[in-house]
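In the previous lecture we treated proteins in isolation. Real proteins rarely work alone, and many bind small molecules. This record shows how such a complex is specified: first the sequence, then the SMILES for 3-methyl-2-oxobutanoic acid.
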Amino acid sequence: MTHAVSPAREPAAASPSATPTLYGGSGTRRITIRDLSLAKERGEKWPMLTAYDAMTASVFDEAGIPVILVGDSMGNCHLGYDTTVPVTMDQMTMLSAAVVRGTSRALVIGDMPFGSYQEGAVQALRSATRLVKEAGVGAVKLEGGERSLAQTELIVQAGIPVMSHLGLTPQSVNAMGYRVQGRSDEAAHQLLRDAKAAQDAGAFAVVLELVPAELAAEVTRSLHIPTVGIGAGAECDAQVLVWTDMMGLTGGKMPKFVKQYANLRQTMNDAAKAFAEDVVGGAFPQAEHAFH
Ligand SMILES: Nc1nc(=O)c2c([nH]1)NC[C@@H]1CN(c3ccc(C(=O)N[C@@H](CCC(=O)O)C(=O)O)cc3)CN21
Ligand SMILES: CC(C)C(=O)C(=O)O
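The predicted 3D structure, ligand included, written as tokens:
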């Protein structure tokens, strides 16, 4: 093994003043769930993005995004399906492996696709184990609090970190649609019970999707593990967006919670047309692009 960092720098890295921050820190080793836990203690917020391929993941890793989710939103955003429901373990394993290969610092979380854990704890552990062994992910995510309690417990006991996903759970789209969750008193209490159940089962973090901001804030205050919001207001410990949405690549009407940071769809359309016009008009290739 070769060490890029000289031994003289190691004591400094261990001193309190050099506490690594999740975003903007200088560390180069992989982020761990312990780093996320310490960030909550410090009150430090962190960003998470999805990725479905090695190149995109390497861009986010280089930009310092500490946590990358290989979401089953790959169904919509990478594979052309209408929902996340058709996504398979083979697809999830292949694209998670690509994201792991494209990164060196980010914690990579592999989503458990619909049908890969609903049968019970043993099936869930088998699926999670496959994502760890074949793709090399550092953690997995699954939907449901109380209803996925046995699955979460067994996977965590096996030594695989679990992120729980509550509120709008897209794998249940056929039962619940894409509506804001937890609006009634009863639903709000259920969400709090689900969050506590996930924490008690050993989950290291909880995604809160499409939940009223006040309720997400209450969940965030009542848990010692971090909450990751998407359409859940500003009080969550972390925020996640689907990368093709926030980069303006997805196209179509965006959910209200999306902020667009780029317009890749326009950029790529312009570039494709410029290339086409050059080819049709004979402006590409020039001599410098050819071999003689
Ligand atoms: N491209 C993409 N982005 C996502 O965020 C995403 C996916 N795909 N696929 C899986 C789920 C599905 N998601 C969705 C899909 C639609 C809405 C939506 O239309 N929401 C309405 C709110 C409706 C209400 O008020 O109850 C909105 O206007 O935001 C929200 C989340 C989030 N996830
Ligand atoms: C939106 C995030 C949380 C997700 O579950 C996904 O990308 O599949």
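Summary for your notes: Residues 73, 76-77, 84, 168, 170, 178-180, 210, 242, 245, 250, 255-257 surround 5,10-methenyl-6,7,8-trihydrofolic acid (ligand 1) (CB under 6 Å). The longest helix spans residues 264-281.
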